[in-house]
């Protein structure tokens, strides 16, 4: 009687073990797939500890740009993020000639950006400095690649 049960029992045990190891293999393959999908996101992050500044020039003269706030995730992969709001910007005004061409270059890793003219609320990348005399204030908002962070900047131009 024991011999008659031994073969079916052994077969049942082998099926159970095979099923468990298949489930474990599926979990391992899923984990590898999850890691493979996450790796490209962090691989495109910059290695800086905080967002870099945009490079803005007018007539080959650099414009002073202030970092006024950011939310930034560590490139170390430790899943820590920092949120800093510098509510008082140290606005430095750059004197520029009327109608001069504005050249805007964002740091590597910026996925998209928006420039807002705070004087009139217009958005977009201005191609030229206004012609009328006065001080023109701008803010810049950047979204960084693969959700590494967001950053805000300010600059002011004085047309003399």
Properties at a glance:
160 residues, alpha+beta, Immunoglobulin-like, 2 domains, six-stranded mixed β-sheet, 1 helix, signal, Lipoprotein
Describe the structure.
This is Lipoprotein. Keywords: Signal. Residues 1-23 form the signal peptide. The protein is an alpha+beta fold. It folds into 2 domains: 1-43; 55-159, Immunoglobulin-like (Sandwich). The protein contains 1 helix and 9 strands. A hairpin with a 7-residue loop joins strand 3 (66-73) and strand 4 (81-85). The relative contact order is 0.19.
Low-confidence runs of at least 5 consecutive residues: 14-18, 20-25, 34-40
**Main sheet attributes: strand count, strand direction, barrel closure:** 6 strands, mixed
Q: Summarize the helix and strand pattern as letters.
A: HEEEEEEEEE
Q: Could you give the distance between the termini?
A: 106 Å
What is the total domain count?
2
> What structural class do the secondary elements suggest?
alpha+beta
Could you tell me the radius of gyration in angstroms? Answer: 28 Å
Overall, the morphology is: elongated
CATH level-two architecture of the largest domain: Sandwich
CATH topology of the largest domain: Immunoglobulin-like
**Helical amount:** 25-40%
- Mean pLDDT score, rounded? 78
Tally the beta strands: 9
Number of helices: 1
Question: Which percent band covers the strand fraction?
Answer: 35-45%
CATH class of the largest domain: Mainly Beta
């Amino acid at each position: 009687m024991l011999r008659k049960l031994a073969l079916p029992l052994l077969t049942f045990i082998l099926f159970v073990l095979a099923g468990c190891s298949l489930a474990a293999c599926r979990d391992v393959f899923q984990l590898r797939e999850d890691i493979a999908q996450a790796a490209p996101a962090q691989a495109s992050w910059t290695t800086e500890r905080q967002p870099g500044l945009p490079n803005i020039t007018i007539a080959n003269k650099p414009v002073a740009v202030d970092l006024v706030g950011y939310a930034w995730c560590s490139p170390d992969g430790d899943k820590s993020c920092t949120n800093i709001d510098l509510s008082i910007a140290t606005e430095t005004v750059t004197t520029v000639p009327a109608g001069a061409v504005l050249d805007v270059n964002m740091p590597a890793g910026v996925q998209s950006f928006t420039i807002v003219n705070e004087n009139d609320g217009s958005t977009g990348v201005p191609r030229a400095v206004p012609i009328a005399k006065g001080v023109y204030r701008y803010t810049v908002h950047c979204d960084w690649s693969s959700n590494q962070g967001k950053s805000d900047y300010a600059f002011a131009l004085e047309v003399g």
